[in-house]
Amino acid sequence: MVAPTQKLTIRYYLWTEAGPFRLPDRLHRDLINHRVKLRQFAGSMQKLVELVIRSGEIQSATARGVVYAFDKDGYLDLRGVAQHATPSTPRFADNDAVKDLSPTISKRRFQAEYTWRPGKTVLDRIRSDMHDAGAIPVFRITKKL
């Protein structure tokens, strides 16, 4: 039996004080690769929803909220995420009497600083954009001449 083919699509939605914007894939990739900066977000933390859409016989979507930190120049700053993602060496030898809580504390700190839970209103807006392209405006970088 041949498994049905599935198409995987990832969309990114930037949730700002000015409202939500859909980030084009190329812009998101350029942000991650430090090829572009967004001056209007310099020195700030911005909420982003990462939407993974699986389509085939059955379509499903999974959303997760992440927080992007921007440095003073407007570049995406991944140092904090990398710091929390790097495995730490246990500070104590295997000892039943002493439990090293630093991995648990680090995970909780990461979740508090770099994740958020999109609410029903946010998910409804994204759902409307999935069915009616353009319901959420696409974020564009304007170049000064």
Characterization of the model:
- This protein has helices at 25-32, 79-85, 102-114, 120-131, and strands at 7-16, 19-23, 45-55, 60-69, 115-116.
- α2 packs antiparallel against α3.
- The termini are far apart.
- The chain has a 5-stranded antiparallel sheet.
- The chain is of the alpha+beta class.
- The protein is built from 4 helices and 5 strands.
- The chain has a domain at 7-77 and 115-131.
- The model has no long low-confidence stretch (mean pLDDT 83).
Unreliable stretches (pLDDT < 50, length at least 5) are none
Strand order of the largest sheet: 2-1-3-4-5
Order of helices and strands: EEHEEHHEH
In whole angstroms, how far apart are the ends? 58 Å
The structural class is alpha+beta
Task: Please work out how many helical segments DSSP would assign.
Answer: 4
Major sheet: 5 strands, antiparallel
> What average pLDDT do the residues reach?
83
CA-based gyration radius: 19 Å
- Total number of beta strands: 5
Overall 3D geometry? globular
* Helix percentage: 25-40%
Oligomer: single chain
Which band does the percent of strand residues land in? Answer: 25-35%
